[in-house]
Amino acid sequence: MTLYGEKTPPADDRPTVRVTAVTWPGDEPEPAVPTGGPGRGSRSRRVRLLLAAGVATAVLGSVAGVGAYAYAGDVPRGTTVLGAELGGRSRADAARELRAALDRRAAELAAPLSVRVGERTAEIDPAEVGLTVDVDATVAAAAEADAHAVDRLVGSRAVQPVVAVDVARLDAALKKVVGDQGRKMTMPAITWKGTTPKAVHPKPSLALDPERSAQVVREGWLSRQPVTVPLVETHPATTAEEVDRLVTELAKPAVAAPVTLTTGKGSVQIPPKAIAKSLRFTADKTGKLTPQVDVKRLRAALGDDLATIEVPPKDARMTISGGKPKVVEGRPGQQLDSAALGRDLLAVLPKAEDRKVTGELKPAEPELTAAKLAGLGIRERVSTFTTRFTGGLSSPRSQNIITIAKDVDGTVVLPGETFSLNGHTGERGYAQGYRDAPVILDGKLVPGVGGGTSQFTTTLFNATYYAGLEDVEHKPHSYWFSRYPAVIESTIFWPDLDFKFRNNTEYGVLIDTSYTSSSITVSIWSTKIWDSVKTEYGPRRNITQPRTVYLEPGPTCIPASGSQGFTQDAFRVIKKDGKVVKREKFTWRYDAEPRFICGREPS
């Protein structure tokens, strides 16, 4: 019997155990007649037993030694990563060896990665999307004891590196490759045209799945082969059949007849038109369509009908008395329980009979209490602005200015809130008390309901501007009118043109309006923050002259004397503690207003 170790080729230095010429007791045939005299057979058997025991001990000892050799270090011997031998090393040494190997392949790893998305191919810079080999995670994976014991003793193990990538940056890069190949999901919906429901059937999206894209790029990067990134089709959670079922089983029955709303203070009929305005079908981001009753819309649709059973709460308000702000207490009210009403009404809408719901009136506290209002720091006037108009208070244009001013007067804008003039007044029509007066439409003055409200908008804009409040949205007029400051002015038109400002202070803001027979004034009350807010103008440039336009005479023709067109810059300069802390640039280009003449052009 021979026990010896022999070296394997240089690529694998693990020891190998070889055993030869071993005969185990009982395997060989016994001779029929003993030879060599008495007792010789017994001695021969004992020798064989001792020899076998020795072989076993030697084998076990060798295996134990080889096992200790194979398990030396944190990483089992024979373990490689990207061709780098990490076996038998500590984790720190293995990490250094792997980093050295990666440094040797730096140029290869930095080479652009070819990707294919749909029908398009492109190259991506690995560094720009964060493609790297995570050394520490790779060494940890190499050190994991998940191979079979025999593999550790006599085999080899190639461990795949752990690749990291910035999913968001990769997704942004791949979206450029996708271009117009993808498509957005068409969400399921049910819309209304009057009281007729219309089904919008869903369609799946075709887009990247960021996590799946990252997975295939991580797996394919080191192969140096082009990587195909899939476009994934995602279907909305609600199917076309389910949309049709909602139309048939809910939307159509909902508006088939009115619903009776009964309370302890009386009853109100909810007509189909109000039901259609308040029954909404909303899809979440997965495309799941859910019906619900929007009680706020329902309340608006019922209008004055609810006044017979509800008492709306009244917010505390602030007035200016004796040159100082004064808090006026609000009052609680009684309103329908919105959550219960929405739930109960939705339950009866599919029914053909017994279309009745019982509404519960609950106490409703004002949103703005006197205590809260008093703590907002509204204590001094921080800005004021006045513009002038002609025609006295009896002219339609002046009446429109006063109407919108009264609507806005006393408005409190809380810290961080954005005020929208369109949002506050809603549509300005005849029902709201507005009259026909000249408005600019298609480049000329024509009669239109609400003419003159732009003058109030300009006055309000300037008051907030000189209070140092944040300008969110405004649009100057197409033509410059001398009654307004150039550039620092704003028009308004429902619903497309709005004026918005944000209360970017820690204090409340009170809008106070007042008027005379020839002027409108807006003042902002709060706590003064800035030393001063002023405007510095740049020179007018690109000046153009008006042209003359002859119009058909008649009641809709409004003459105009015309004005120059020009471009100008205005700078809002804000100072605090004697230093300029903000300098904001506003620029506008005015068209030359034509000289409109109501009459035929001279021949």
Automatic annotation (TrEMBL):
YoaR-like putative peptidoglycan binding domain location: 239-357
Listed InterPro entries: Glycopeptide_resist_protein, Vancomycin_resist_VanW, YoaR-like_PG-bd
Residue segments, region Disordered: 24-43
Transport listed as a keyword: no
Transmembrane segments: 49-72
Keywords: Membrane, Transmembrane, Transmembrane helix
Taxonomic superkingdom: Bacteria
Keyword Mitochondrion tagged: no
Protein name as annotated: Vancomycin resistance protein YoaR, contains peptidoglycan-binding and VanW domains
